[in-house]
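S.,

Sequence below, as promised.
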Amino acid sequence: FDQRTFEYAVRQQGYTSATFVDMVKEDLLIQQFVQSINGTNFVTEAEIASLAKFTQQTRDYYYLTVPMQPIADAVSISEEQIGEYYEQNKAQYQTEVAVSVEAIELSPASLTGSLSVIEEQIQARFEQEAEGADLTDQLQAAHIFLADATDEKLQAIQARLDAGDDFAALAAEYSEDFVSAEIGGDLGYTSGNTFPEEFEAALANLEQGQVSAPVQTDTGTHFIKLLDRQQRSFELASERGRIERELLNEAATDLLVEKLEMLKELSFNSETLAEVATDLGLELQITEPFSRQGGVGIAAYPAVIKAAFSSEVMEEQYASEVMDLGDDRHVVIKLKEAFPARQKELAEVRSAVVAALEASTARQRIAEQGAALLAKVEAGDSIESVAKAAGLDWQVANGVKRISTSVNAEVRDDVFQMPIPTGQAEHSGFYTANGDYVLASLTNVTVGDISDLSAAERISLVAAVQDATGSRDVQAYQSSLIANADVVQ
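The prediction came back faster than expected:
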């Protein structure tokens, strides 16, 4: 990483070095302000105790599982059933209405190919920018900082420096700037205006690798080392490509304004967009058919989809208004061809019909089996006896918390939604994500207690509450600013 890499990177993001630094400063200030609001939050013992009743709650339950896969594998569908299902659900097997449209897109990128810049323009722009270019050397500094230095400590550090001891090791040992001390005292780069005046003056007089005598500033005493000196340059050879691109983009933007007005005028009531594209020197696109769900390219934009299926474009076959897609992209469309919905024949959708019918049948069978098992349990049979009679797997889980990882998470989450038993077990049947049926009996619920929290759990719970209330306070503050703001012309 060096200064040129930095400048290239921030330029790619649309910043100059100065505006990037300003953006970072503003972002840091906002973060500090938000953190200051969050920092005022506190959590009382009563809140933690109340939350612990839920977070530390434990549940005891039994459950059995009816697997979906064997039931699905046993399903056999006849041709008669397939035909009946298709006839009953014909509406599901229709093509959607689709359209294909002509489109003309206008953007700076669509115009740059027809533009060029001459050497005199590049030279003039370079000279203009060179006048304001900051060519100040970038100096990378490291320091050993002492807030209240004694003569003895300063002499000890100086003696070790004179003996050739490693500066980074001395910074880790002595420096009271604990953040930079961890990285050998490295403070990063400065253009001469980052550190106090005395610090910058001493740094500027050092040779690369040299360490200064003790330097006194308002904050304390520094031993300063110049780690690196990067000389900035602003040369035509390295800047030519960027300047040429910027000039082309500027010319394209100016031309775009002119072309946009022409596009609006020529496309209005036009018989075909092909002539408009030719007159403007733009490319005519013809999209693949797409439905109201959208397509690819410009057909993926909601504004284009809405316009394509509007009565003006689809029925009256007018050209649409010129739409702004953002980022200086504009498009106008006109109907090329409409494809009405049609009923698909059974032969076209047979595999989909069979799959849907098999899934529907399997779901019905597992629901019937699950309902029969639930009825037995509600009549007084235990999960264990019902499972054994049906040849099914069953499990028991005791002392399970909401966050327990040693049990099936899907079953655990559903069990924690069941009501607390009053006198007798609560029973519930539900389905897992893969379609299995689970029948659960909740036998006991133990309310959590604050004493059940470990030190780590307590810290985590307090932090979660503070984060939630802090976010709420920040949102409330933002809402109050908006509510009390006055908008003037």
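The chain has a mean pLDDT of 92.

Coffee later?
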